[in-house]
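To illustrate the input format used throughout this study, we show a single complete record. The first block contains the structure-token representation of the backbone; no residue identities are included at this stage. The design step must infer an amino acid for every position from geometry alone.
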């Protein structure tokens, strides 16, 4: 009986510190990535809102871009996109045969991680234009 209890040992203090360090790193990474993905969620909702407007298929590209900016500024505080730079981020992809027109948003987010280290995330979102064709994505 005495032999069994002497062999049972718990985690060492050093092992405990390593486990806590790994957990802290994962939590720190999650806290840094959450705002980036939340911003992406808001941008995609604004993009879908512009694509789902009535008669969106027949609207000119400039009107679709204006709708996207209006949806974005009405519901969020994201200032990454504005009238002067929206043309480089938001494109209207012309349809191929039997395909709907699509709004294509391509952008990059750089988020500070730790001192000089940044997290760089590239987003490429396509949304079909028109209520009848926009499924959940």
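Output of the design step:
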């Amino acid at each position: 009986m005495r032999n069994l209890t002497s062999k049972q040992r718990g985690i060492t203090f050093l092992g405990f510190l390593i486990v806590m360090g790994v957990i802290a790193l994962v939590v720190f990474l999650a806290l840094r990535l959450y705002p980036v993905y939340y911003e992406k969620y808001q941008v995609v909702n604004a993009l879908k809102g512009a694509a789902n407007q009535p008669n969106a298929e027949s609207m000119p590209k400039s009107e679709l871009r204006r709708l996207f900016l209006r949806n974005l500024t009405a519901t969020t505080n994201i200032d990454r996109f504005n009238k002067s730079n929206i043309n480089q981020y938001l494109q209207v992809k012309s349809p191929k045969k039997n395909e709907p027109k699509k709004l294509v948003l391509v952008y990059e987010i750089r988020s500070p991680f730790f001192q000089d280290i940044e997290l760089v995330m590239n987003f490429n979102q396509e949304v079909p234009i028109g209520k009848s064709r926009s499924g959940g994505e």
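Structural context for interpreting the output: The longest helix spans residues 13-51. Confidence is low (pLDDT under 50) at residues 132-137.
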